[in-house]
Amino acid sequence: MTPFKSLYGFLLVGLLAVGCEKENKVTPTEDTQAVTVKVNQLARVRQDVTLNVDSISDSRCPYNANCVWLGNAQVKFTLKSETQSQSGELCIGQCGTQLKNRDVMTVQLGAESYEVTLSEVQPFPGTKPDGTPKEAVITVNLKK
Questions:
Q1: Which residues make beta-bridge pairs with 137?
Q2: What is the pTM of this model?
Q3: Mean of the per-residue pLDDT values of the chain
């Protein structure tokens, strides 16, 4: 192998490595996509912010059942930055005296405010075998 081919191969591998490094870096976006999180599972929602689902309770009326009360699904969570953490609770369904499709809460971590939105708890009762782990679908957006 000539020295020119060795140098060319080395440069090509180096350029590919630099290109891959840029793709793997996590960069925060203005609007975060929804994350699906199980109990005691941690999800990175921004470069320096994580979300942990502490508990999920689901008393919604099962699929294809006739119920007097629609029920609700409640999710307790903790939002953490590098230096602070705040806990909160979100609820969908018949929460208190109100019927809600989703729940939204503002959480303050230092100088930043985050809007935490619960859009769904899966699986819906009666659609999967008992014992299937519950998951919360949550979106965390930085408030401006």
A1: 36, 120
A2: 0.73
A3: 80
